[in-house]
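Design job #97: recover the sequence.
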């Protein structure tokens, strides 16, 4: 009997937080929201703490570019089962075109679930250099993150040049959120895309693979954190071979138009917001200058040379200051 008590007693103590959280969640929708937020962030912090061990181990055996894949999959499996939020993917076969520059729309910290579900092996991330000197810095360095100094144009250009060479020679893909910050609203929409990823894709000669996550406002925003399914569509790769920096404005517009049209197609828009969504769709078609065309082919002169470091330094250098990569945390709006 004493043995049984000594075994059951610790389990009873460990179960108290779970019982407490469930009780709070059952009291109100606000309680449910904060409990699920706590579980989500707690899972994220736990996996982040273990990630340093993963990074150190894989770096020793020469597989540091697989660290993100291991950590992402671990987090997704835990969070999916704990919170009952699944990510369903359409067009995953388009990731077979790797290596490439994977461009994903960015809404909230729930996007980490999408990263966890889709992050391929041999993939790095782009991050602002300031994160290198945070507690995440050692993990990101060991996982092969590409740091860009947003406050210094010349350093940003050198970082992009080095990243392009690494991607080309080591056949490494890059995961990035080209909008540069979060865009979460009831109506599906996207911010303009930063140009750094396009410079990088052209310099490395790798295709751009757009990935679109549906607008999940109905599931997650301030005060709401429900269970459900998040739909993601991987679009066909867009080749960059033969393009130069002169093609970047047209390329970025076409990529954004294609992603935005897909976002509106796969998203569930609340009834009261449909008119707003339609108004935005019609106005963006006029403002973008590219109409509703979503053709993934960019016609260029085959005689054009590939982008060089000199041209990268002289064209659109102001834009590279603001280019960033992973902004994954923050409260929903």
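Job complete. Output follows.
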């Amino acid at each position: 009997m004493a043995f049984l008590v000594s075994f059951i007693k610790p389990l009873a103590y460990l179960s108290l937080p779970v019982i407490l959280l469930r009780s709070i969640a059952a009291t109100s929708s606000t309680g449910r929201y904060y409990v699920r937020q706590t579980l989500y962030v707690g899972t994220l912090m736990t996996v982040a703490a273990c990630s340093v061990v993963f990074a150190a181990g894989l770096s020793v055996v020469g597989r540091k570019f697989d660290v993100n894949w291991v950590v992402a999959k671990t987090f997704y499996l835990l969070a999916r089962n704990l919170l009952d939020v699944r990510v369903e993917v359409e067009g995953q076969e388009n990731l077979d075109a790797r290596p490439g520059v994977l461009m994903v729309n960015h809404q909230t910290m729930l996007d980490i679930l999408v990263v966890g579900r889709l992050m391929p092996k041999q993939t790095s991330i782009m991050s602002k250099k300031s994160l290198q000197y945070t507690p995440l810095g050692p993990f990101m360095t060991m996982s092969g993150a590409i740091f860009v100094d947003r406050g210094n144009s010349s350093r940003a250009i050198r970082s992009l040049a080095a990243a392009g060479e690494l991607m080309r020679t080591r056949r490494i893909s890059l995961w990035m959120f080209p909008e540069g910050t979060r865009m979460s609203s009831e109506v599906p929409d996207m911010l303009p895309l930063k140009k750094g990823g396009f410079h990088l894709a052209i310099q490395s000669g790798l295709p751009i693979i757009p990935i679109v996550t549906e607008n999940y406002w109905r599931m997650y925003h301030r005060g709401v954190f429900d269970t459900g399914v998040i739909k993601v569509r991987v679009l066909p790769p867009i080749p960059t071979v033969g393009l130069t920096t002169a093609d970047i404005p047209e390329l970025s517009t076409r990529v954004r138009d294609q992603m935005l049209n897909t976002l509106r197609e796969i998203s569930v828009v609340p009834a009261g917001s449909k008119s707003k969504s339609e108004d935005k769709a019609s106005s963006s078609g006029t403002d973008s200058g590219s109409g509703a065309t979503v053709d993934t082919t960019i016609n260029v002169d085959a005689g054009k040379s590939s982008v060089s470091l000199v041209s990268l330094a002289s064209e659109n250098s102001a834009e590279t200051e603001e280019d960033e990569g992973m902004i994954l945390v923050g409260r929903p709006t």
